[in-house]
Amino acid sequence: MINKKVANVQVALSDIADNMTIMLGGFGLCGIPENSIAELVRKNVKGLTCISNNAGVDDFGLGLLLQKRQINKMISSYVGENAEFERQMLSGELDVELTPQGTLAEKCRAAQMGIPAFYTPAGYGTEVAEGKEVRVFKGKPHILEHAFDADFAIVKAWKGDEAGNLIFKGTARNFNACMAGAAKITIAEVEELVPAGELDPNEIHVPGIFVKRIFQGEKYEKRIEQRTVRTK
């Protein structure tokens, strides 16, 4: 069994360079690869194209990369919680490709499965469909969407083993599961890393064959994006 474990985040992300395309798992601030984002900030790589459901918030998640102008293009489905993102988009500093959320997930999954493209009705008749091939299936127009072509996918899991098998906790499974294996190289950071063979095969969400490198993260903040509590 191949051991995918690397010593730390610095080793895992050592070959990420300027102008690369990177997928980052998570939904809002749930299940984001906090250690890896911090390392990208430290490395100060520039000109990145980031594929992620959203762009974090101003002082956390991908918002940290936006603050340092490290992202050239964002491909996302929801970007409503980041004022700096809004400012850069409206000023023309940031190239933004808004994508329906289901289409974003399927573009990841298609890449993961080796499917080059697919047809979907989502976005037909809107700006999303501009310049794309249209075909009619059962009387309904569909647009052609291509699978993503990314250099790296960086995902975050609750638990993993040294063979790269991953288990997610709750809704942190979100985009992490469909991004694993959807790029040339997938890097997984996990809260708990165990020896190969210790995970129950029936509980594994992503098999290790999709993962190239795995490391144990540390000091997770796990911020809550919007805290809502019941009034007493």
Q: How would you summarize this macromolecular structure in one to three sentences?
A:
It comes from Myroides albus. Helices cover 20% and strands 27% of the residues. It is built from six helices and eleven strands.
Layout: helices, strands, pairs:
Layout: H1 9-12, E1 21-24, H2 34-43, E2 48-51, H3 63-67, E3 71-76, H4 83-91, E4 95-98, H5 101-113, E5 117-120, E6 134-137, E7 140-146, E8 150-161, E9 166-167, H6 174-179, E10 183-194, E11 213-216
Parallel strand pairs: 1-2, 1-8, 2-3, 3-4, 8-10, 10-11
Antiparallel strand pairs: 5-7, 6-7, 8-9
Q: Look at the structure and name the CATH superfamily.
A: Glutaconate Coenzyme A-transferase
Termini separation: 55 Å
For the largest beta-sheet, the strand count, sense and barrel status come to:
8 strands, mixed
Based on secondary structure, the structural category is alpha/beta
Uncertain regions: pLDDT < 50 for 5+ in a row?
none
Q: How many individual helices?
A: 6
Give helix % range.
10-25%
Q: Tell me the number of structural domains.
A: 1
Instruction: Based on Cα principal axes, name the global outline.
Output: globular
InterPro entries: 3-oxoacid_CoA-transf_A, CoA_trans_fam_I, CoA_transf_BS, NagB/RpiA_transferase-like
GO molecular function: CoA-transferase activity
Pfam families: CoA_trans (PF01144)
Protein name: 3-oxoacid CoA-transferase subunit A
